[in-house]
Amino acid sequence: MAKRLHGLLVGIAAIGMLVLAGCAQRDLAPADAGDFPTPAYRIGPGDNLNIFVWRNPELSVTLPVRPDGRLTVPLIDDVPVAGKTPTELARDLEVELAKFIQDPIVSVLVTGFQGPFDQQIRVVGEAARPQGIPYRENMSILDVMIAVGGLTEFAAGNDAVIVRQVDGSEKSYRVRLDDLVKDGDVAANVEMLPGDVLIIPQSWF
Fold first, then answer.
1. Which residues, including other chains, have CB under 8 Å from residue 166's CB and lie 6 or more apart?
2. Where are the alpha helices (DSSP H) in the chain?
3. Contact 175, 190 (CB under 8 A)
4. Strands of 121-125's sheet, edge to edge?
5. Closest by Cα among 28, 19, 11 to 162
6. Would you state the pLDDT for residue 205?
7. Which residue in 12, 17, 60, 84 is a FRET match for 163, CA 20 to 30 A apart?
8. What is the mean pLDDT of residues 3-28?
C-alpha cells in the first residue's frame, strides 16, 4: 500500500512538472515575502472555536467545527462557519442571538487550527511524508520540510516549485530545497502562504 501511494504521489508530481514546464517561472527568494500579503485566517473543519458571549456565560461554549463546516451553539442550530474569519463569525452570531437577547456582544477565538482545505499547504512528490499542513503565520519552507520529514533520497530538491495563486492566476516559483535542507543555506528559506502547493520532483539520475 505504501509503495502504491508513493508511486501515485510521484505520478502527481511528474504531471505537475509537465504542466509547469509551459509556465513562466522564477526563483522565489526571502526578499519576495513582502510582495505577497498574508490573507486573513479563515475557519475550517476541525478547528476548535471558543465562543464568548459577554454577560451570558450560559451561551459561551467551546466547540469543534464539524466536517460539514457547521456547528451548533446554544439557541442557534447548524451555523455555517467554514470560510469565515473569526470576526465575521462573531458578527453573524450577534445578528442571530439578537433575536433572543438584547445587544449581544460575541468574541470568537480559534484554537487547534486546521483551516479550510484551500488554505492548507500541500506537499506532493519526493517528501518523506507528503501531506496537507495547516498554515501558520510566518511559516517558512523550512517549517514545511520539518513537518513532512525532509526529502527522500530520490528528490531533486533544487528543482522543486511552489504553485501559488497570485491576483487570481496560478504562478510557479522555483525553490532550492537541496541547498536549504542538505547544505544549510538559510538564504534558500522562503515564506509560505495559505494555499501553496509544493511540488518536489524525482531526480532522474
1. 36
2. 2-21, 86-97, 141-147, 177
3. yes
4. 25-27, 169-174, 161-166, 197-200, 121-125, 131-133
5. 28
6. 64
7. 84
8. 51
- How much helix, strand and coil, in percent to the nearest 5, is found in the chain? 30, 30, 40
Cα–Cα distance, 124 to 163 (Å, whole number):
11
- pLDDT digit string, tens, across residues 73-127: 999 989 999 999 999 999 999 999 999 999 999 999 998 888 888 889 999 999 9
Neighbours of 43 (CB within 10 A): 25
* 160 Cβ contact list (under 8 Å, min separation 6): 125, 174, 175, 176, 177, 198, 199, 200, 201
Q: What is the mean pLDDT of residues 43-64?
A: 95
CB distance 160 to 154 below 8 Å: no
- Name the pTM for this structure: 0.70
Q: What is the three-class DSSP state of 117?
A: helix
Residue 7 pLDDT > 80, yes or no?
A: no
Residue 172 has φ and ψ, to the nearest 5°, of -125, 145
- Which residues lie below 8 Å from residue 101, measured CB to CB, with a gap of 6+? 56, 59
- Cell triple for residue 65? 467545527
The amino acid sitting at 44 is G
